[in-house]
């Protein structure tokens, strides 16, 4: 295992330095379609592109090297000594991931499907035990989601940036993702009857769920 890990790290860092490798940051396609990703290696002309796939919370997995190689799912081609292309055929929900060309920021592939249930966003209040202390936490749970979304909090309609802890997206057996985010507040604030709102934004996806003191309501918003 250690040998494999070291070899992977070496491959990922072999062309680091001042060279700039460019990829499109986000690509969204529907289930069953073909996803095409381009990569420009800049001034690197003596090294073919290496493609890696990484799902949220996972480690990079080797996909293909160079040009002219293919598998039932992946095909690689090149247009010049520095321009390479990765083609993913008949994409499925499980193909949603970040695809790296060499080492840089990668392309986030988001596979959408009408067969998947709509995402659900729910806010849970602090426990009664927590409310006996000085601080308490609200939890926002996003389920049946896509992997690359942003979760944020508002208190009384104003954005907050402190006291927030958001987990990495976790893939479920049905190929959807689950994300949780907590907001730690002063117990005295909870007793002031404020409205706490959790927002999720992503590719063609906008959700809100709000909670006020000891009762809450769920309001999905699609845009």
From TrEMBL:
Keywords: Disulfide bond, Immunoglobulin domain, Membrane, Receptor, Signal, Transmembrane, Transmembrane helix. It comes from the Eukaryota. Residues 16-117, 119-198 form the Ig-like domain. The keyword Signal applies. PROSITE patterns: IG_LIKE. It holds the Pfam family V-set. It is found in: Membrane. GO terms for cellular component: membrane. Residues 1-17 form the signal peptide. PANTHER family: T CELL RECEPTOR GAMMA CONSTANT 1-RELATED, T-CELL RECEPTOR GAMMA CHAIN. This is Ig-like domain-containing protein. The lineage of its organism: Eukaryota, Metazoa, Chordata, Craniata, Vertebrata.
């Amino acid at each position: 295992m250690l040998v494999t890990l070291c070899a992977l790290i070496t491959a990922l860092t072999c062309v680091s330095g001042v060279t700039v490798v460019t990829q499109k940051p986000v690509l969204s396609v529907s289930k069953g379609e073909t996803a095409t990703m381009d990569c420009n290696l800049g001034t690197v002309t003596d090294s073919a592109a290496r493609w890696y796939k990484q799902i949220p919370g996972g480690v990079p997995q080797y996909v293909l090297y160079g040009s002219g190689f293919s598998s039932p799912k992946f095909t690689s081609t090149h247009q010049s000594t520095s321009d390479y292309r990765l083609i993913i055929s008949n994409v499925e929900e499980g193909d949603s991931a970040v695809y790296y060309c060499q080492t840089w920021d990668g392309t986030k592939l988001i596979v959408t499907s009408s067969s998947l249930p709509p995402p659900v966003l729910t806010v849970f209040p602090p426990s009664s035990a927590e409310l006996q202390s000085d601080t308490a936490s609200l939890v926002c749970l996003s389920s049946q989601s896509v992997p690359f979304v942003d979760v944020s909090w508002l208190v009384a309609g104003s954005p907050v940036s402190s006291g927030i802890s958001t987990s990495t997206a976790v893939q479920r057996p049905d190929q959807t993702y689950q994300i949780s985010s907590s907001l730690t507040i002063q117990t005295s604030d909870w007793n002031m009857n404020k409205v706490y709102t959790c927002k999720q934004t992503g590719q063609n996806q906008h959700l809100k769920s709000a909670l006020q003191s000891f009762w809450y309501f769920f309001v999905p918003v699609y845009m």
